[in-house]
Amino acid sequence: MGLFSTDCAYCGDSGASENCSQCGMDFHAECAQQRGDLQIKEEGGGLLSSSTTHYRWACPNCGRRSNGSF
Ligand SMILES: [Zn+2]
Ligand SMILES: [Zn+2]
Rounded to the nearest whole angstrom, what is the distance from the C-alpha of residue 65 to the centroid of ligand 2? Predict the structure, then answer.
């Protein structure tokens, strides 16, 4: 895809939908989880509210860490 390649930094395949907000490294969430760099924890919000997904990201490329939720 030329300049806007979204090749996964882990497996090299295209279609990486996630990227590091610090350095822009593209990756598949599944690949990062397998390597242990991305940890996802889902918290159920009960019957009526929707659940929240918290993530912890430790970038192997720039070495920065971040937390957040979807
Ligand atoms: Zn991948
Ligand atoms: Zn990074």
Answer: 8
